[in-house]
C-alpha cells in the first residue's frame, strides 16, 4: 500500500515503436515526460527502464509512486498473430459448430476464394455436454455434470488445453448451468483459467457471446503472466503502490479484473489517446473534435463530441481484410469507437512489382530495426525517413538530441529502393510517401465520419503522437478542416490519457421483451445488481464510493428489426410510468441515426447497460515544462528548408516549443520543435499559443 508521501502517478503507453511515459505529482508540482524505444521481445523491460529513468530525472524514488497506469496492445497482437493459449470450449449439445458457422453471411459476395477468419478453437477441442435452458430462463434439460467432468478431463489430459471457455445456449438469460459447469471444472483443475460466457459477455446472440468467451480464454494465460511480470519487476525496484490497467472503453481498472477479463483490454492502448483528446477538448472548450493520434506503427482517428469519445459495444478482432466489416472475430466488449490504420512513422514504403506503383504501409519497421534513419539495421525507407528528407525533422534533435538520425543513409535507401524503380529523385520519392500516407489517413477519416453523418469541416483536429503534429497540417488541409490544436508534450499525449482517465467500467445484462410487456421490477433489479458490481470494482480501482455516477442505457429496436440502437434512460429504477419518456427517447435516437421514425411500430428492448464512472484527475499541462525566462515571444532559434507539395522548398523559422508562452503568435510556414515531436505549420497558416499552452493552428 502506498504511503502518505506517495503522491506521484505514471501513465505508460507501450506502442509498436515507442513507449511513452508521463509522470505527474500534484503535491510536488511535477509533470515530466519520457519516450524510449519499445522492447518487442519483452514490453515490460521498456516499462521498467522508462519508470526508473523518470524517477531519476525528477529526483523521486519508487516509494514516492502512488500508482502506475498502463495500457497495452498485447491482447490485440496476440489475436492477430494467433500466438495465444491452447483453448477448449464446452457448449450445449448440438451447438458445437456455431462459432464456425457464425452469421452465415459473406463479407464479400463476389469473392469466390473468400478467406474467413480462423476460429480460435478448432473442432476437436469443442465438446458438447447435455443441458438446455430456454430463452425464457426455464430449465428444459438439466446439466449433466458427469459429462462436464469427462469433457474437462479430455480437454486437459488429452488435448493439453491451457484454458477453457464455457458457452451454453441462453446463458445470458440464466447462468446457473454455466456457473455449475465452472464449479465442476474448478474442482478438478483449480489453477486452470476459465471463461464463462455469461460473465465475460452476458448478452443475447450466442455466436458473438461464445466468440468473446473463447477470445478471453485465448489471451488469459498470456496476460496473467505479463501482468505478474510487470508487477514483480516494479515491486523488485521498491514500488509499493497500485498498478492499474486501461480498459478498451477508456476507463481504468484493477489488475484483478484485467486478469479475469483480458479481452476487455483489446483496445487498451488506443483508448488512452481518445481520453487525452477528451481532456484537452474539455479544457479548451472544444465540443466537436477529431482526435488524431499518429504514432510509430498506426494512426487512430476518433470523434469526441460533448467532451466524450464515441463508444460502441462490439468489435472485430484480427480482420482478414483490414477495413472489411465481417472479416474478423466478433467480440462483445465496450470500446472507444475509432478507426485505426497502418499509417505511422514506421510504415514502410515500397514499389509494388506487379503495378510499378509506390505503396506505403501497413507493414511497419517497428522498434527493431526501426526506420532507416535510426541506424539500427533498417533498410526499407519509412514515413519517418521521408519526413527527414523533406526537412520536417532535425537529425540532431530527434528525441531532444538523444537519438541522432542519419540522413545520408536515408537518401541512399530511397535511391536504391524507390527512385531507381520509378524514375524520380529521393526528394520527390519522399514527397510521394507523404502524399500517400496523408491521403490514406484522410480517406479513412472521411469514411469514419461519413458513417456517422458528420462533416469534418465542422470539427477541430487535436493532433498528437510522435508523428501526428508532423502530418496534422496537411491532413487537416485535405479534410478541409480549419483548425488544428497540438497540446504541449504532444509526442507522449497518449500516456497523459492514462492519468486523466476516470476509474470506469460498463455493465450489461440482456432481458428481451416488448416495452409494454416488460417486467419493470426485473429490469430495476438488473440495474441494482450492475450498480453493486460496478461500485465494488471502481472502489477497488481507487474511486471514492460517493463520487461514483451511473448512466443507464437500453438497447432497443422496432420489433422485427435485426439490430438495435442505444437509448438513454431516465433512471435505474423504472416503472410503467416511465414508458412515455422511454418511447420518446427511442424515437429521438432513431431519428438522429436514420432521419425518420415509425411511431406506430412496436418497440422491444434487448439489453440493459450501465456506465459506471468516477471523476478523473485534472492535470495542469502548463506545469509540464516551465517557460524559458525572457523568451515568451515567438523568436525562432534557427531556420530550416522544408519541401511542401505544390509550393516547393521554403525557408522555415524553427521555434522552441518550450519558449512559447501564452499569447505568442506567428505565421507559417514554420516548424515548432519539442523533445518528442515536431509540429509542421504550413504556408498561410496562423498560430497562437493559448492559455493552456496548446498550439492553435488556423489554416488558410
From TrEMBL:
Residues 9-186 form the Hydantoinase/oxoprolinase N-terminal domain. Residues 523-692 form the Acetophenone carboxylase-like C-terminal domain. InterPro entries: ACX-like_C, ATPase_NBD, Hydant_A_N, Hydantoinase_A, Oxoprolinase-like. Coiled coil: none annotated. Pfam families: Hydant_A_C, Hydant_A_N, Hydantoinase_A. Residues 209-504 form the Hydantoinase A/oxoprolinase domain. It comes from the Bacteria. This is Hydantoinase/oxoprolinase family protein. It comes from Plastoroseomonas hellenica.
